[in-house]
Amino acid sequence: MWVSSAAAAPSGLVNGSLNTRSHRLTLADATHDAPTAAPAATDARAATPVVSVVIPAKNAAAYIGETIASALAQDGVVEVIVVDDGSTDDTVAIVDAIRDPRLHLVRNEASGVSAARNFGARDAHGDWLMFLDADDRLRPDAVATLLTAAKAAPHAVLVYGDYNTIDSAGRTIGRRELLKGRLKPSGNVLERLAGGNFIVNGGIMLIRLAAFRATGGFDASLRYCEDWHCWCRLAATGEFAYVPKLLLDYRLHTANTMNAALRTPHDFFPAVARVFADDLILRKLPSGAAPRLRQAAEIHLVTYAATQAVRFGRYREALVYLGMVGQRSLKAMPRSAVKIALSYFGI
Asked: The whole model's pTM is what?
């Protein structure tokens, strides 16, 4: 693992996301010496797009080793940047014990996942970024699959695939392979995306580093759905490309931010307000479409909350949330009810 005491220059990411108190892990903090610099890349390698994987981590000792291993095993990954966000468990020690010159550890002072992601992206050197959660794991050839899709879509600012779900022990609980005939959108996806986050997880995508920096990164003032807001801003600047393959094992358990026991639709609504107050997004939406899309986004998030309630056996809450869908649109209730029912079977 490579460590450095050098400070990075500010990059202009949004809402104070780059904590000025944050710092790279110093040599005094490390338990082994940094390796010598890698030799210069050949011309052929320099022409091949490379990927920086950013992993925000807080008290992730149970899974961080597996997550890092899944990233380092990918072809095309030039660096894995783990941003420790104030862990009090053995996360730092586990990362520090992994000896790979592509692995970087940086430390942030408990500023939240958005600030941690922005901080990691600030020092990234790849052509593409991937944001991988510290308890998820990439499937073999996930990055190579996305790079192939990116080559076929030279104007895309983001390429993405799909995921399946696993439990805390790593056992497959999702059955998303049953949806393999379902295609998600490519091209200009902003209108569709503003009506609901169909991407869900940053570990199934690659983002052009230049595009991410140009749009300002993640909004650190949002506690939930900050990723959806970021994807919408990216969609306002360029095309997306979809590859219909399962690329990630997305871990569902009560420690996940989006799957904690007491999350309600109201926790997600600040992000809806932020998306539909964002001038970059609004300028690129069809005239007059914002009210309709805002209603669709709220229905999407309420339905999502209901599906999570079902997966954790909170069926009464799921029915309450289905009623909230009906308050917004009676026509939307049947489709939401189907999604809620399918979630019982892991779909």
From this structure: 0.83
